[in-house]
Design goal:
With 342 residues, the protein is α/β, with parallel strands linked by helices. It has 13 helices and 13 strands. 46% of the residues lie in helices and 18% in strands. The longest helix has 38 residues.
């Protein structure tokens, strides 16, 4: 009996020790996981709407971070939020990021950038903001100057040379006189582009015909109101309009009206051509600026920059459908794409 009692006692001690060890290991693992999770740098990414150009900018941004050693789930945590084109939601997203005390906000497109800036100003939290796909950061009230922002904002602008687009229209559709533009009247960058188009139109012998919208459902009617008055439709870098490129091209081509885009995603979606920018490269450059900030560089020492280069992109299917002949001069230096045309 005494031997049995000793054996039972020894077993009990061993089991208790094993369980205690497991418990200690469990606590250590849990603590370690919390430490790792706590060490993640939180970055909020806000995007006004999903469409190919903005999606490319976001992809470029995250790729730049990864290339420089900042990888989602390893040492950073990216919280991506999409407003689905709803302006009040952009503000809600921005306020969430501020309340969460994220380390940095990446804002894609003017409405998201303005919402993020307003949220940080309202709470007086100096969270750095990097922007991309914003046409005019100064006029949008985000920075005081491009070379020295003077606020908690820096990043990249997608300002496109309207002169370059009009030169392309002249070469592709030489008899064009009336240029139509459908745009979102509540988007600051769209208003800026329309005003710029009107300023230079006479230099090319063009007349600008506009039709404003406030949501994507209004696009078909907006087009109907101007299609009989125009020779070409020009699509600015307007986020609401860009999300409806397939609808726009189909409606325009049914009336034999060419569509000229302001960036490559428009052309891949069915527009005839563009002399535009690469949004992936623009987003990548923004990501490099974010890396500088995370490394400790003061945001006012990082200038806002614009796309360094533009490229001509031609949709061969769209050109063929509309019987537009592409000269060798343009064809030899253009990227060719197909598809997106019904």
């Amino acid at each position: 009996m005494a031997g049995k009692k000793v054996s039972i006692l020894v077993c009990s001690i061993l089991v208790a020790g094993i369980l205690g060890g497991c418990s200690a290991n469990s606590k250590t693992t849990s603590s370690s996981q919390k430490e790792i999770k706590g060490d993640l740098i939180r970055i909020g990414v806000t995007q006004v709407i999903e469409h190919p150009a903005l999606d490319s900018a976001r992809e470029g941004f995250t790729t730049a971070l990864k290339d420089k050693g900042y990888e989602d789930g390893k040492n950073i945590k990216i919280d991506f939020q999409n407003a689905q084109g709803d302006m009040p939601t952009t503000q809600t997203i921005a306020e969430k990021f501020v309340n969460d005390d994220v380390k940095l906000i990446a804002a894609i497109a003017t409405p998201s950038a303005q919402a993020a800036f307003n949220a940080t100003q309202k709470t007086k939290k100096n969270i750095p903001i990097v922007i991309t796909a914003v046409t005019d950061p100064i006029q949008a009230g985000l920075v005081k100057a491009l070379d020295k922002p003077g606020t908690n904002v820096t990043g990249t602008s997608d300002a496109v040379s309207i002169e370059g687009q009009f030169e392309l229209i002249k070469k592709l559709i030489p008899n064009a006189k009336n240029i139509g533009i459908v745009y979102n009247t509540s988007e600051a960058n769209s208003e800026i582009q329309v005003n710029n188009a009107k300023k230079v139109a006479t230099d090319f012998g063009f007349n600008i015909v506009t039709s404003g919208i406030t949501n994507t459902n209004e696009i078909p009617q907006a087009l109907n109101s101007i299609l009989e008055k125009i020779d070409v439709l020009y699509v600015p870098t307007d986020n609401m309009v860009a999300a409806a490129i397939p609808t726009i091209t189909q409606q325009c081509y049914s009336k034999n009206i060419p569509v000229i885009g302001s960036e490559s995603a428009h052309v891949k979606g069915g527009a005839v051509a563009t002399a535009g920018i690469d949004y992936y490269k623009l987003g990548y450059e923004t990501g490099l600026k974010a890396v500088e900030i995370l490394g400790g560089k003061k945001i006012d020492e990082i200038p806002v920059t614009t796309a360094k280069e533009t490229s001509i992109v031609i949709n061969e299917d769209a050109a063929k459908k509309l019987n537009i002949k592409i000269s060798e001069d343009i064809s030899s230096k253009a990227e060719k794409v197909t598809g997106g045309v019904k």
